[in-house]
TrEMBL record:
It comes from the Eukaryota. One of its GO terms (cellular component) is Golgi membrane. This is Polypeptide N-acetylgalactosaminyltransferase. Signal peptide: none annotated. It comes from Ignelater luminosus. Belongs to the glycosyltransferase 2 family. GalNAc-T subfamily.
């Protein structure tokens, strides 16, 4: 009896154990659904120990992966979510970090954005032998955006060309960018030679890129922002061109990925792409390809500057040419510095239209830069002192307080570098690389603010480059406002850095693209302050103009509305 009973108990025990195991397994299968994305290494065993850090990551990761919606945003199409609550959260995300991460988290990390190349590009055959180290730096970026950047690089780069991916975490505070990201790399991207390096202290994007470059060992450095997507065929033309000319630094065509719906916006036929320029207040600008014969070409095209986030440079050349100015902090200015330096010191900058990489352009920076304010201005002041010779006056005209600011720091080592590399002058750069660049105080009768006798000023009303809008009237600013700088050129143009004043059919004056020999853009400036157009035989006038509307032309008369004074006058040449 006793024996039978014991046997019974053992049997019941076994049955119970079996049932518990079945229930636990069923629970696990339900809770941990199949992953949506392909992983390079399957997790070996499915038994999760909640106390183990890695297993905690695994649970978190599978939950995350289970929310990914297959084919959402496939081929770079606009992505949308059905749940209005998600959309509301997405809107909030856009306002707080300038990127809809609610949506980003649901789009497959390994989505393809399709072949974005112009048809003509597919005829080119490249066979580079150089290898690339792709360097991606980040500070508190959205994890799914970082991972999509990495996936796009691993998937779109032939294995033999990708030496490694170097990730530099600029001391992010977001927890998931530490152990969890490393765990993701170890389990989902193992075998792809990805180095993740965490900096102990936030150093800003310039020094973070320098750290990445130090860690890299491939032939060519390719820097990408942490919210990019590389497309088919992106790397071959970059490496091939560098193989041909090691002192040529390249940018891909940077396409727009929407920060709100992740649509890859640029179409493949897009040949009207732009290259890099700059403005005298020290900003990067997009400009049309200057030489008309070059427009529509698919071979690499000269670019006076680069945007800065995405570029390829031979690794040893990067160090030879002076890498970055390591005393630049935070964000900004480094792209114009490296651009001027490359050109002035014997290199070249080109845009490669057959290499297409998407970038999420955010409406604002979702981060602040601790300590220093206006690092862009301070960094630009450094580069102006080092590279722009006399032309730095034009930057400091807009930023007078920066010229002798102690915040600029010591520039000796950069001046030495310039000497050691025997670099050419900024005038050489303007004459040879960017002859189209308008110089506001050369060959002009007057420049600066243009004030009438009633103390009102001409103002471009922050007109967006490449568009047309009113030449407005506005109270004169006491500071050097970029919107109120105009020049009266020898050739009779009344113009700002990017626009010329033109008379419209309604006799209002507009700012638009400068055209040669256009009588509606021709003005004569007289000593008495009159600005006259001979086609209409009328004078520039502010009479009856409601601020901030456009000034007009009117019958010439002796009126305070028709007397204009420039801040600086070249009195020797005015009639
Ligand atoms: N970044 C960084 N440290 C900083 C600021 C920015 O590592 O202090 C990274 C950022 O995460 C991004 C890259 O630098 O990957 C370029 O910054 P961002 O995209 O904000 O510049 P933008 O594209 O607006 O020029
Ligand atoms: Mn960016």
């Amino acid at each position: 009896m006793f024996v039978k009973c014991r046997r019974h108990r053992v049997l019941i025990h076994k049955i119970l154990l079996f049932m518990v195991t079945v229930i636990v397994l069923m629970f696990l299968i339900r809770e941990l659904p199949e992953r949506e994305i392909t992983s390079s290494k399957q997790i070996q065993n499915n038994i999760i120990d909640e106390n183990d850090e890695n297993d905690e990551y695994e649970i978190k990761l599978r939950t995350y992966e289970s929310k990914i919606i297959p084919n959402l945003g496939h081929n770079g199409k606009e992505a949308t979510l059905k749940d209005p609550e998600d959309n509301e959260l997405g809107e909030k995300a856009l306002k707080s970090v300038a990127m809809n991460y609610v949506l980003s988290d649901r789009i497959p990390l390994n989505r393809s954005v399709g072949d974005r190349r112009n048809e003509g590009c597919k005829k080119f055959y490249y066979n580079p032998t150089l290898t690339a180290s792709v360097v991606i730096i980040f500070y508190n970026e959205i994890l799914s955006a970082i991972l999509r950047t990495i996936w796009s690089v691993t998937l779109q780069t032939p294995e033999h060309l990708l030496h490694e991916i170097v990730l530099v975490d600029d001391a992010s505070t977001a927890e998931e960018l530490k152990g969890f990201l490393q765990y993701y790399i170890d389990t989902r991207l193992s075998g792809h030679r990805i180095k993740l390096h965490h900096l102990n202290e936030r150093v800003g994007l310039i020094k973070a890129r320098l750290e990445g470059a130090k860690l890299a060992t491939g032939d060519v450095l390719i820097f990408l922002d942490a919210h990019c997507e590389a497309t088919i065929g992106w790397i071959e033309p970059l490496l091939a061109r560098i193989e041909e000319s090691r002192s040529t630094v390249l940018t891909p065509l940077i396409d727009v990925i929407s920060a709100s719906n992740f649509a890859y916006l640029s179409d493949a036929d897009y040949t009207g792409f732009q290259v890099g320029g700059f403005s005298w207040p020290g900003h990067f600008t997009w400009i049309n390809v200057q030489n008309e014969n070059d427009r529509g070409k698919l071979t690499p095209i000269k670019s006076p500057t680069m945007a800065g986030g995405l570029f390829a440079i031979e690794r040893k050349y990067f160090w030879e040419i002076g890498s970055y100015d390591d005393k630049m902090e935070g964000w900004g200015g480094e792209n114009l510095e490296i651009s001027f330096r490359i050109w002035q010191c014997g290199g070249r900058l080109e845009t490669v239209p057959c290499s297409r990489v998407g970038h999420i352009f955010r409406d604002f920076h979702p981060y602040s830069i601790p300590g220093k304010k206006d690092t862009h201005g301070i960094n630009t002041a450094r580069l102006a002192h080092v590279w722009m010779d006399d032309y730095k006056r034009l930057f400091f005209m807009y930023r007078p307080k920066l010229e002798y600011s102690p915040l600029i720091g010591d520039i000796t080592s950069r001046l030495e570098l310039r000497k050691r590399l025997k670099c050419k002058s900024f005038k050489w750069y303007l004459d040879n690389v960017f002859p189209e660049k308008f110089i506001p105080d050369e060959n002009v009768l007057g420049y600066g603010q243009v004030r009438n006798n009633l103390n009102m000023c001409l103002d471009d009303l922050s007109l967006h480059e490449g568009t047309t809008g009113p030449l407005g009237l506005y109270p004169c600013h006491a500071f050097s406002a970029t919107t109120q700088y105009f020049s009266m050129t020898y050739k009779g143009k009344l113009r700002s850095e990017n626009f010329c004043a033109e008379i419209s059919n309604t006799l209002e004056v507009q700012l638009t693209r400068c055209l040669k020999d256009e009588l509606k853009q021709s003005w004569i400036f007289f000593k008495n302050g009159t600005i006259y157009n001979s086609l209409f035989a009328k004078c520039l006038s502010s009479e009856g103009v409601e601020v901030p509307k456009a000034v007009r032309i009117d019958n010439c008369k002796d009126s305070d509305h028709q007397k204009w004074k420039f801040t600086y006058i070249n009195s020797t040449v005015i009639t």
